[in-house]
Design goal:
Number of strands: 3
Helix content: 40-55%
Shape: elongated
Number of helices: 4
Structural class: alpha+beta
Length: 106
C-alpha cells in the first residue's frame, strides 16, 4: 500500500514539473514570431533559418542576446541559456510550424 502511494505522489511530482516546463515555454517565448539567425542566410531545404521562436518580454528580460554588438542587438545565436534549456520544445515548434528550419547553435 505504501509503495502505491509513494509511486502516485512521485507521478504527480514529475507530471507537475513537466506541465510547469511546458507552460513556462509559452510564457517565455512568443510562438507566433520567429528569431532569425544572423549566421545563416538560407538552408539547403529552402526554408527560413531560425534559432527558435522570438522571446516574449519576460524572456528578453531574463536572457540578453549574445550576438554581434550585443548591447544594442536583438540577434540571438541560439547558444543562450534559454534556447539551450528549451531546445526540445523549440525543435517541436519548428516541426509543427513547418515553414522554418531550426538551425544548430554555435
Amino acid at each position: 500500500m505504501h509503495f502505491a502511494v509513494a509511486t502516485r505522489k512521485l507521478g504527480w511530482l514529475f507530471g507537475g514539473v513537466g506541465i510547469a516546463y511546458l507552460a513556462s515555454f509559452f510564457v517565455l517565448f512568443d510562438v507566433t514570431k520567429v528569431s532569425r539567425s544572423p549566421l545563416y542566410e538560407f538552408t539547403e531545404s529552402g526554408k527560413s533559418p531560425v534559432v527558435g521562436p522570438a522571446l516574449s518580454f519576460m524572456g528578453c528580460t531574463l536572457c540578453k542576446p549574445h550576438g554581434p554588438s550585443f548591447l544594442w542587438s536583438t540577434d540571438y545565436l541560439g547558444n543562450e541559456w534559454l534556447f539551450v534549456m528549451y531546445k526540445p520544445c523549440i525543435l517541436l515548434w519548428g516541426i509543427f510550424r513547418g515553414d522554418v528550419e531550426v538551425v544548430p547553435s554555435r
